[in-house]
Amino acid sequence: MKKYFQITFAMALLTLTFAFKPTNPELEIGKPIPNASFKMLDVNGKEVSLSEVKQKNGLLVIFSCNTCPYVKLSAARIKESADLAKKNKIGVVIVNSNEALRNDDDSFDEMKKYATEHSYDYNYVVDKNSQLADAFGATRTPHCFLFDKKGLVYRGAIDDNIKDANEAKEHYLTDAINAIAIGKPVKTSSSKSIGCSIKRIDTE
Predict the structure, then answer these.
(1) Whole domain around residue 35: which residue ranges?
(2) How far apart are the C-alpha atoms of 20 and 8, rounded to whole Å?
(3) CATH number (domain holding residue 115)
(4) What is the pLDDT of residues 48-100, one digit of tens each?
(5) Contacts of 177 (CB under 8 A, 6+ apart)
(6) Structurally, how many domains does the chain consist of?
(7) pLDDT digits 0-9 by tens, 168-202
(8) Alpha-helix residue ranges (DSSP H) falling in 142-183
(9) What is the pTM of this model?
(10) Nearest-CA neighbor of 60 among 13, 84, 92?
């Protein structure tokens, strides 16, 4: 009986190894925008790339979705961060990489509804086969990556309290955006992103 359970456990581990696609490490600070020319379908029906959205002072990329409870808790903060970035001539792209849920609540039609409900006036795009998430090493929603003119200056969470914005003591993303706007170094360049896992599919 013991040997049977050992074999069953080994088979289960083997199944898990093939069932879950490993993700790349998070993009390193200082690195340029990866896959900058990769075209993605925006909720407005047009295809855009990160290089096209980038503005004079940089680019903010937030991996997000329609469904994650942590995204819902952060909805107002995501919009505030995006609005602040745009105000300071930083392009904004919200990326939905939940390819495994594309036929459900993270479908393109649902993304369009979500963007309308939340008054998005920036790009909300479909990351087909999670290619951009793989290039960035993004694993969670929300997961933020902020670039200045030269490269990545901040990656991670919006602030230090995903559950309650009013209790946050460190406002990582806001501080980083404000630093870029006045040409100052970003004090905190990385933090731990807390949220739902990006729902990838195995395309191999």
Answers:
(1) 27-197
(2) 19
(3) 3.40.30.10
(4) 999 999 999 999 999 999 999 999 999 999 999 999 999 999 999 999 999 99
(5) 60, 81, 84, 85, 88, 90, 146
(6) 1
(7) 999 999 999 999 999 999 999 999 999 999 999 87
(8) 172-181
(9) 0.87
(10) 92
